[in-house]
């Protein structure tokens, strides 16, 4: 059985509830599949927070702390969290914990400076998620984007994202103008990684943007549909198989579907 976490939003980015199995169409390698079930439950989630503490974030730390606070305030009370901070390299994860104060205090106490190893930090967070309590999992990246110091590569990290059952959301904290090439290319990198997992990038330049972005992320995490189906052709080739999820009827015109791009089948 293939499980596909899906969130549906309207034009304002608000999560849409009330959809049923008849509203969804799923295509596996461009072949329509018969859905077994569609569920929508507010289940507890294991959430990894990846926070940029490099030199480019020096004047943005208060906004990063605020983003974390908004995440804790709006999440399911049963959610568990861990945090990975990074600059030249990712620091050891803090958590899992349900204590917002523990993570907020750790972030405020972290010295800022150094280069940006975003890919290495995400790689560590994906590995840490193997210790998660819950099957529903998400990573929230808080950064101005870009990478100039990772040993990890984009293609390999994308493969890790594709093989993991988690969704990446990014809060891009930007100034009015970009100060470096890393910041210029940062949004595209964050968008690529987020979209590949079925998540999204949210641009944020002030407190209002951040608050709206985090609320949208939490709404998508908490109101996520899970679609299940058995592929018509049972793939056991170890290869990548694309998934496309569409909405049927009038829903397709004014709503947006966020779903992972595919999966790797088990090899024989």
Please describe the biggest sheet, giving its number of strands, its sense, and whether it closes into a barrel.
6 strands, mixed
The number of strands is 14
Q: Note the beta-strand portion.
A: 25-35%
Question: What's the N-to-C terminus distance?
Answer: 16 Å
Residue stretches low in confidence (pLDDT < 50, at least 5 long) are none
Radius of gyration: 18 Å
Mean pLDDT: 91
Structural class: alpha/beta
**CATH domain class name of the largest domain:** Alpha Beta
Number of domains: 2
In the CATH classification, which architecture of the largest domain applies?
3-Layer(aba) Sandwich
CATH topology of the largest domain: Rossmann fold
Q: Give the full name of the CATH homologous superfamily of the largest domain.
A: von Willebrand factor, type A domain
- Total number of helices: 7
Approximate helicity band: 25-40%
Shape: globular
Strand order of the largest sheet: 7-6-5-8-9-10
User: What is the string of helix and strand elements?
Assistant: EEEEEHEEHHEHEHEHEEHEE
């Amino acid at each position: 059985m293939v499980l596909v976490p899906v969130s549906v939003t309207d034009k304002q980015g608000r999560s849409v509830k009330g959809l049923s199995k008849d509203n969804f169409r799923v295509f596996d390698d461009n072949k329509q599949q018969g859905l077994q079930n569609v569920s929508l439950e507010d289940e507890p989630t294991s959430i990894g927070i990846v926070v940029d503490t490099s030199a480019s974030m020096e004047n943005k730390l208060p906004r990063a702390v605020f983003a974390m606070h908004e995440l804790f305030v709006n999440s399911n009370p049963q959610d568990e969290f861990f945090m990975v901070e990074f600059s030249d390299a990712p620091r050891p994860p803090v958590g899992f914990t349900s204590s917002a104060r523990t993570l907020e205090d750790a972030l405020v106490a972290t010295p800022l400076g150094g280069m940006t190893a975003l890919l290495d930090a995400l790689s560590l967070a994906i590995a840490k998620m193997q210790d998660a309590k819950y099957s529903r999992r998400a990573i929230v990246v808080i950064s101005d984007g870009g990478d100039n110091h990772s040993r990890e590569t984009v293609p390999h990290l994308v493969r890790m994202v594709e093989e993991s059952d988690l969704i990446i959301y990014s809060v891009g904290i930007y100034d009015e103008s970009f100060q470096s090439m890393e910041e210029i290319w940062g949004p595209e990198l964050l968008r690529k990684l987020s979209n590949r997992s079925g998540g999204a990038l949210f641009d944020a330049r002030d407190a209002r943007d951040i608050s709206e972005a985090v609320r949208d992320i939490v709404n998508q995490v908490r109101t996520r549909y899970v679609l299940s189906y058995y592929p018509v052709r049972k793939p056991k080739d170890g290869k990548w198989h694309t998934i496309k999820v569409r909405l049927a009827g009038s829903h397709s015109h004014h709503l947006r579907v966020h779903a992972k791009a595919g999966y790797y089948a088990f090899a024989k």
